[in-house]
Amino acid sequence: MSFRNSRKKVGLYGGTFDPIHTIHLIVAEQARDALEIDEIWFLPARIPPHKQTKQITADIHRVEMIARAIAGHSDFRLDTIELEREPELPSYTYDTVHILKERHPDIDFYFIIGGDMAAYLPKWHRIDELILMVQFVALARPGYVMDNPYMRHVIETEMPQLDVSSSMIRKKIAQGRSIRYLVPEAVRMYIEEKRLYEA
């Protein structure tokens, strides 16, 4: 099946990326390839609604790590739209998509989420409006069931489930253990240089 049309197609990939790791890049590339998307925009969040009580690494470091991670991919780009918000406001996907559609009326946007986040779609801020504004794409491991009323609006595509997370990487660094190959080498070197996540 081809998903091609004449309008530019951009995948939006949001998250704290604290730090960005290899699986983030694999997810982005798999979505880009499966849906024939022209570009993937990485959107680092300032205060995700589900993480408002958690400590998040400074924006400047997360942005730099993303920039280094995607530097070699011509179809990946960094967009700091969510970092332009007032510091005390959470990053709602509805607000981000609304602004991006106003700025880029000639682009069709696809919002990339994992299967775990798809399960929470009924709780997303202004989801009934959001689901009509952007095409959601959910990546899940084979056999994973995403069952809620909003899934009929979501394109589902499978990808192998690889058990790597930012929290696991932070824990390994705090324990003085290797993260080589779990993050791009440029990101690993930046983490070491800035001594991020050390205990």
From TrEMBL:
Checking HAMAP family in the record gives: NaMN_adenylyltr
GO molecular function list: ATP binding; nicotinate-nucleotide adenylyltransferase activity
- Per UniProt, what is the name of the gene that codes for the protein in this document? nadD
Source domain of life is Bacteria
Protein's GO biological process: NAD+ biosynthetic process
Q: Which organism is it from?
A: Aneurinibacillus migulanus
Pathway of this protein? Cofactor biosynthesis; NAD(+) biosynthesis; deamido-NAD(+) from nicotinate D-ribonucleotide: step 1/1
Its Enzyme Commission number(s) read 2.7.7.18
**In this record, what's one Pfam family?**
CTP_transf_like
Keyword tags: ATP-binding, NAD, Nucleotide-binding, Nucleotidyltransferase, Pyridine nucleotide biosynthesis, Transferase
What name does the UniProt record give this protein? Probable nicotinate-nucleotide adenylyltransferase
Under the heading InterPro entries, the entry gives:
Cyt_trans-like (IPR004821), NadD/NMNAT (IPR005248), Rossmann-like_a/b/a_fold (IPR014729)
Residues of the Cytidyltransferase-like domain: 12-171
The reaction(s) catalysed by this protein are: nicotinate beta-D-ribonucleotide + ATP + H(+) = deamido-NAD(+) + diphosphate
Keyword Nucleotide-binding carried by entry: yes
Q: What does this protein do?
A: Catalyzes the reversible adenylation of nicotinate mononucleotide (NaMN) to nicotinic acid adenine dinucleotide (NaAD).
| Key word Disulfide bond present | no
Q: Which family does it belong to?
A: Belongs to the NadD family.
